[in-house]
Amino acid sequence: MNNEYSNETKCIQSGWKPGNGEPRVLPIYQSTTFKYENSDEMGKLFDLEKEGYFYSRLQNPTNDVVAQKICELEGGVAAMLTSSGQAANYYAVFNICEAGDHVVMSSTVYGGTFNLLTVTMKKMGIECTIVDPDSGEEALNEAFRENTKCMLAESIANPALVVLDFEKFAKVAHAHGVPLIVDNTFATPINCRPFEFGVDIVTHSTSKYMDGHAMCLGGAIVDSGNFDWEKYGEKFHGLTTPDESYHGVTYTKKFGKKAYITKATVQLMRDLGSIPSPMNSFLLNIGLETLHLRVPRHCENALKVATWLEQNDKVAWVNYPGLKSSNYYHLAQKYMPNGTCGVISFGLKGGREVCVSFMDHLKLAAIVTHVADARTCVLHPASHTHRQMNDQQLKEAGVQPDLIRFSVGIENADDIIADIEQALSNI
Hints:
By secondary structure, this protein is an alpha/beta fold. It contains 17 helices and twelve strands. Helix 3 runs parallel beside helix 12 and helix 13 (291-310) packs parallel to helix 17 (413-425). The longest helix has 20 residues, at 291-310. The model has no long low-confidence stretch (mean pLDDT 95).
């Protein structure tokens, strides 16, 4: 794809390139296996001497086409799809970390990511130090150790809506010789391209805005190709030394800038198998075709709703990076001048019980364990997504007990506001 094309055009045209007489629409390669004429041809695939497909647990043509579209939207060199956003974050970290290693992570990441790193991966021998994303460089530097292998954060924190200072985090990570991994789910590449600000690897829960219709789970990992793995030698030995499970191939030497994604595909996906179904990737591609149309509408509606909430007497506080009253307004203007996301967080006077009652009275907005699709939905993180955290951890994650996460859809904004108004009148 011509990189001079805008992201609007890439949403439509990137990925699938039909040849003469081939289907105009991306086909669903619903097959576990792929046929070859002789044994030697397939053997070359297993030796990584030839590109191609042999078993969909590793790679599938439908999946790869959609991964390429996301790669081009983010401006990366290589990408892969996973079966969920959780799998994407797990693979992104585990691809360069092993027992005895250490990760530095922002405290405001999504609760599932927080649990993944601080509980599950801890059982695997990977330790994690939590940092306040608003900390200065000195405090961030203190979190690093000799065995630190990466730094992890979110472009817009879910649900705290903290906007990451990309350049500050990238400067600190690179000073310690490690890559910065950023989950760009909420901003999407329509509103923010983290690679332009020093980020090395981007992840997504494609289940959110990219799919856009709450139809299919999925995740993505995109590599910028900018981090110099070989510069740090043994520190990233999984990439820079021979992999005996593939006849001694050294990924950085054989695959260059595509080393990181190649290793994640042929090693992690081979052994762990979190591949998306081709059908889900097909549906994701349909969502991506309208991403550039939907995201601005989400942001426009969210700003209208947030402005209305800020003026309502029953509302205790409102947090939306698009509001001038937000602590993150200036960072949002710097990194995401065209808009942030469609998610608002706010609290009501009277505390947690009043917030729960308000949610129960909503009619248009649905209580669901989801966010960022075409339909307006609502969640109480302290009761739902973050309920595994204690009060102190909730505070560190920027999740107040009364926080309502309100995901503004692409319906008529006046109808959304009317629904909030009638629910408030019933509490």
